[in-house]
């Protein structure tokens, strides 16, 4: 990615321009260029860092962009990582009380004084639900980095799982 005009510097031209004309001898200019070479290296590192940050900021939690980010980072050669949204969710249970006189109530919920409440679903059923699945074949060795990037890109309050197998078609 080319450097933006805001940060473009030409160190040899800058050194030649700042040295008075009486002192512009080849040996002096070479010495000053050697002195500025560490700063030029730091400048190149800054430009690389800026390009990397701008690339990271271009990614978001959309399925296609998450897939692109994961493939760019972890599998640039083969691009095998796939993100699939969950198909099935727990069906809602509609609670009809007897007093409501609804036709064909699906479930009757009765809570009497002194009894434990009746839960219609177990907490494990809700905990095991995922909103999307990441298929990353052959990348089990990079599990920590993969989890970190998915957590950074995903929306809040969404659950996911990573499977290290090929994605089903």
Automatic annotation (TrEMBL):
Domain of life: Bacteria
Protein name: Coenzyme Q-binding protein COQ10 START domain-containing protein
Organism the protein comes from: Hymenobacter glacieicola
Lineage: Bacteria, Pseudomonadati, Bacteroidota, Cytophagia, Cytophagales
């Amino acid at each position: 990615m080319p450097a933006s005009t805001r940060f473009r510097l030409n160190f040899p031209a800058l050194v030649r321009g700042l040295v008075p004309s009486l002192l512009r001898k080849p040996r002096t200019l070479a010495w000053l260029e050697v002195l500025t070479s560490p700063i030029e290296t730091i400048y190149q590192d800054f430009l690389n860092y800026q390009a990397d940050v701008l690339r990271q900021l271009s990614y978001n939690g959309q399925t296609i962009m998450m897939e692109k980010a994961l493939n760019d980072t972890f599998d640039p050669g083969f691009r095998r990582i796939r993100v699939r949204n969950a198909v099935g969710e727990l069906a809602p249970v509609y609670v009809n009380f007897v007093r409501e006189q609804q036709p064909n109530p699906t479930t009757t919920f009765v809570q009497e004084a002194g009894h434990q409440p009746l839960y219609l679903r177990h907490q494990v059923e809700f905990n095991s639900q995922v909103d999307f699945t990441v298929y990353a074949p052959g990348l089990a060795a990079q599990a920590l980095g993969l989890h970190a990037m998915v957590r950074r890109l995903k929306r809040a309050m969404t659950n996911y799982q990573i499977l290290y197998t090929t994605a089903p078609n």
